[in-house]
Write a structure and sequence with these properties.
The protein has ten helices and eight strands. By secondary structure, the chain is α/β, with parallel strands linked by helices. It has a domain of about 200 residues: Rossmann fold, CATH 3.40.50. The chain has an eight-stranded mixed beta sheet, sandwiched between helices. It is globular and about 55 Å long. The relative contact order is 0.16.
Length: about 290
């Protein structure tokens, strides 16, 4: 099935939404909260894999991060992003306690999902935290490097986007190059992936917003909220990478020791933190088999 995509207003904020299936065909919906970059289009192969596992008898929503897709001239704080996702769920899904929710958060999206749990408690079936950045981000190897070079990144990367636009002024050329990069992706997903890079990731406003959000993450995502985790432990699934430079190396083992009864998996396959680029099938299979 080809995903439905549209830009709608969530609390007056233009938001790129991707949807597979209909709420009328199931009493459950899966909500996918992206990481950073918060471009929902990158999660379409993952969403399609999940959708196929359910034989299309479910609704899946991918909610892009505000200000990332489509890009706008405002950088939303993490708290504003959380409120934005809650408002999107309220606006787009039935306000019915019998319509159950499965939340999937990737990277900083996992942090947002954790902060959303109390507000969605009465409708929550399960929450998946994939490659979660929920603590000590600034201590990770990638976090240390990002903080050190942020003053350079914030000017250099938007400039590089402008440079690409100048060097390749014709959209057809850029589209062919990006299409080549995603040559191994399924045909039904490729056009969305190409459009996501072309119109969002290569936009200086998107790059500036995601960099500013990442800087806030380094300082806000520090101490793990154990009280919140304990309250929802029976409904949480953690998936930690062993090749994840945004999470300090010792966190997965600490979590397993601290919560021996929890559903915590430490990846042994060296999947990338940005799993949506290469390992959507594997993570979709993992999520599906954890859903009751």
């Amino acid at each position: 099935m080809i995903s439905k995509q549209e830009i709608i207003k969530i609390r007056k904020i233009p938001t790129h939404i991707y949807q597979l299936g209909s709420t009328s065909r199931s009493n459950r919906s899966i909500i996918i909260i992206p990481g950073n970059p918060g471009l929902g289009g990158f999660y379409i192969p993952f969403a399609h894999e999940l959708y196929n596992y359910f034989n299309e008898e479910i609704c899946i929503l991918v909610i892009s991060q505000a200000g990332h897709s489509p890009p706008i001239d405002y950088c939303f704080s993490l708290q504003e992003q959380i409120e934005h996702k809650l408002a999107a769920i309220e606006q787009l899904l039935p306000n019915n306690p019998n319509h159950r929710l499965i939340l999937i958060g990737h990277s900083i999206g996992a942090y947002m999902v954790l902060k959303m749990l109390e507000r969605l408690e009465n409708r929550l079936d399960r929450a998946f935290l994939l490659f979660p950045t929920i603590e000590r981000m600034k201590e990770s190897s990638a976090g240390q490097r990002f903080v050190r070079f942020y003053p350079i990144y914030i000017y250099l990367l938007p400039f590089l986007c402008l440079l690409v636009q100048f060097l390749f002024p014709f959209e057809s050329i850029k589209r062919k190059l990006i299409n080549w990069f995603f040559a191994s992706s399924p045909d039904e997903d490729r056009s969305i992936l190409v459009d996501t890079v072309l119109y969002d990731l290569l936009n200086p406003r998107t790059v500036r917003n995601l960099l500013q959000m990442a800087r806030e993450e380094m300082f806000v995502v520090d101490k793990r909220d154990d009280q919140l985790i304990k309250s929802f432990l029976s409904k949480l699934t953690f998936y930690y990478g062993t090749n994840d430079h945004w999470v300090p190396n010792d966190i997965a083992k600490q979590m397993i020791n601290l919560y021996p009864q929890a559903d915590i998996t430490e990846c042994t396959n060296k999947y990338l933190h940005a799993f949506v680029l290469k390992h959507s099938k594997e993570l979709a299979r993992f999520v599906f088999h954890r859903i009751d």
